[in-house]
Amino acid sequence: MRIEATLLILCSSAAGSLAFSPSSRAAAPTCRRTSSSSSSALHDVSTEKAPFFASTTKEEQSTTTTTTSINDTLQIPLSYNEMITQTSLAMTQALSAGKTRQIVRVLLPRDAANDNFGIFQEAEVADTLQSSNSKALNIADTTKLVPTDESWQGGIMQLYRAASPTTKDILRSLCPTMTQTGVPPKIVEDRTIDESGVDGVGLMYTQIGKGGGDEVKGEEDEEGGNMFSGAFGFGQSVSLPTLSGDDMCVFVQPNQEVVDSIETLSASAGSSPLIALINPQWRDVDDALDSASKNDNVFGAFASFLGGKGSSLRKLDALGYEVTYVLEGYVCKGGNIRLLKRFDSDWIAFAENDAGDAWVKVGQQANRPTYQDVEKFLDDKGVGYKYARDLGMAPKL
Q1: Each residue of 143-155: pLDDT tens digit?
Q2: How far apart, in whole angstroms, are the C-alpha atoms of residue 208 and residue 344?
């Protein structure tokens, strides 16, 4: 149905005139990474800075200088613990800057043996994943960070089982009581917000100052209970939490069906508590239906009704939600690519070296790089296809 609706929107849009403006591409510094057994670091070889024009204000110059310096320090986390630390640091600094409504996208931990497709069942990462505050297990030996793509054989529910412990570790790192006293907060995981029980959506929030261990609501549905009771309106109603000023709330893998709940909680909680969306299920990139749904006309409303994300994004924009941290990836020219962004940085693209133990910065720009932008970054750096590098037909990366 979505394909047919996309064709309908394209046909309807053909009657109008569409104007496209090319996005500016910032010059990226050339970098190389040196690695050792214990740590890795990025070293700039050459940096090309854009000149300041006469009309540039001091505030704009300060912002540009700050963004440039942050771009130079960012690098891809090489382990699960590093990712948790980097994510929580960005969210904390964004919160200090007054950004209490945040959108975050991260990679998810996955069993290191998941590439062995001959095995009957992939091991659950939650069975071996320890809290980032525990050093009893070397997580890098058992897990690796993977994009939320089609390679997850279990679909959205397998993604949720990896996103749940990841979100809890992020909340523990964000909590002020954890950093000041070492006492973790009580975290409530509410699965009743996922009315069907199979959409992979969850709600987590802290209850600072309240005793008892972590709590899970709606867990019985996943363990053989009435899983589909909520899908037909007969399940228990969603009860949104009451948040204090120090509490934090996260919607895990929210889809467009829970945007109204996000809107209700954001309005009732006031501006003080942190409310974040981690790994929303809508994509950053747009298809034809998403693009049409962003138009403020009858075709836009129709496209939103058919599943376009434009209406949902407008609601989130009105509530003040903005991207504060993104770490995502895909494959380009046969090699792994990672995109990294903070609320105060540009979008930075990294390519995995042929040894698989470091990431090389290949380009950056203010707007999210498209696949074609990343391909051009690699071409400008002289990076060939992965198969050519493996066969010795192109220089190693």
Answers
A1: 889 999 888 888 8
A2: 29
